[in-house]
Give the backbone structure.
Amino acid sequence: MTTTFTDETRERAREIIARYPADRSRSALLPLLHLVQAEEGYVSPAGVTFCAEVLGLNKAQVGAVATFYTMYKRKPTGDFLVSVCTNTMCNVLGGQEVYDTLSEHLGVGHDETTADGTITLEHAECLAACDYGPVMTVNYDFFDGVDASTAVGVVDELRAGGRPMPTRGARLCTLKEMAVQLAGFADEREGAVADGGPGEPTLRGLRLAQEHGVSVPGFDPNTPIRSKAEADKAAAEAKAKAEAAKPAPVEASAAPVKGGDGASAPTGAAGVGEPAKPADASGSTTRDVKAPDDKSPQVRTAETRQPDAGTAAPDAPGTKVPTDGTGTAPAAGDARSAEAAGVAANAPAGDGKPAGDEAGAQERNLTEAKAGTDADGAGPADANETGAQK
């Protein structure tokens, strides 16, 4: 069955989308999902379609978000969502016993709704109130320090049409009314947020902080919140101050740059207008050459094997010129040519067998092994050993 959303919902949807920049309208998806849940009690296929249409998304994108967050229900939910924490701390304090008792009393299991449509029960991994455990929430409002009997009393009062007062927070509302608030709209009930108060563990923490002088460094509760114009002005002043603190650039010297022995430095030893680079511990005055770390591994490997002696500095960082054993470097070559030659010499593997497993190579190995046996009279074992040494 297709749901036609009310004009009020469509107007609120436009208001939600207007909160975001024109090119970031898809950021409105989360509150829009709460909005459609506020009308139907869950995110139905029609709700997914509605969100996709108003945001210009496809239904798969909307559905992926709706199924990721547990606060979006994918099937009809009762007026009151009762969540019992069964995670470690609350479980040790009796949370699992509370859940099991409610499940038996209501005749429903996890994520199931009573026959009268009043209560949906679920166990929660953590409700972020370990110092109040065991805790239970009704439409995300807290009931602290519950046990099996008090939890049963809360759900019985809800089924009888009452609204028990949460331990902390505002007075209870239905799940649909809560979804409107989660979509970003105020609770319009008179005095709805006037009830409730902080819990004793929270107050105890504040008292200990005051007693021992614990506070955020530099925090002044009387500091007014600056407007955007004031914040922009302060940022501009800070930027100007930082620019003024920068050291002045060193002027280029017209005198020729001298080397370590007093002679003029060779051309190219330093750039135009740049000071001469002092010799390092080895006496080298070679110009800085960027290490080849930003090159691809293939090019870097090829340059290491056959560096281009015409351009690479011998003591450039990250560069090592190999020798042939006599101290003589190989002839200058092109690194890319070396890379291409290496690729050509190693053909890629085919679908049937690995690289190098060619019939010609196998026949050549057998011929060499046979020739070795005929020449020195070695047996198969000796031939195998000879091949391994080769």
In short: The first strand starts at residue 80 and ends at 85.
